[in-house]
Amino acid sequence: MPENLSQFFERLGEVLISILNFLPTLILALILLFLGWLLAKLIRLLVMRLLNVFKFDRLIKKGPQDELREKDRVKAKELVGNLFYWFLIFVLLIVVLDVLGLNIGGLVLNRILEILPGIFVAIMILILGLVLAIFAGEIAHALLLNTKIKHPLIWVRGIRWLTLAFVVVLALEQLGLAAHLVINLILIVAGAIALSLALAFGLGCKDIAKDIIIEFFKKEEEEK
In angstroms, rounded to a whole number, what is the distance separating the alpha carbons of residues 103 and 94? Predict the structure, then answer.
């Protein structure tokens, strides 16, 4: 019995020593996690401030200022800032895993370094695609104003989200992720929506076209 008790305390001492040896590493990892989180939040704030400095919202403010555009303007700036924020958080987690002695962090980091050019291109595609989605919504809004379609803002929102979905798929392609089926599906949906808009626009503008044709024939008769 005393021998078993001695072995128990011996193993307990080994566990306590291991914990004490690991404690500085754990504290360092927690400090890095906290400081990295603060840095990521600061960079996100700086990115959003830079977007204001370069008047990023001017890309969206053309046209009437309805509720939908106001919401999209805020989301546009937040989206770009969040891209940087979550990328930094991801890198931070990899660094913390390395500090804790987990090899998975190094493996993931090496893989990221291999695909880093693709990541940069994907981020640029997302940013440019966001601008494209905004302009597509503006064009759709201008066209729908000339029609009698009900709830035009819903159509505008759908077109913007569809454009963003297509851009996200293109970004995934840059990262080497297979997305051909998704691309084909989006193209089919986009074609259907474009056809619907064309029909709606044609029906909404039939009176305008009729007036133009009548005016044309009147001028022809007057010249004769």
Answer: 10
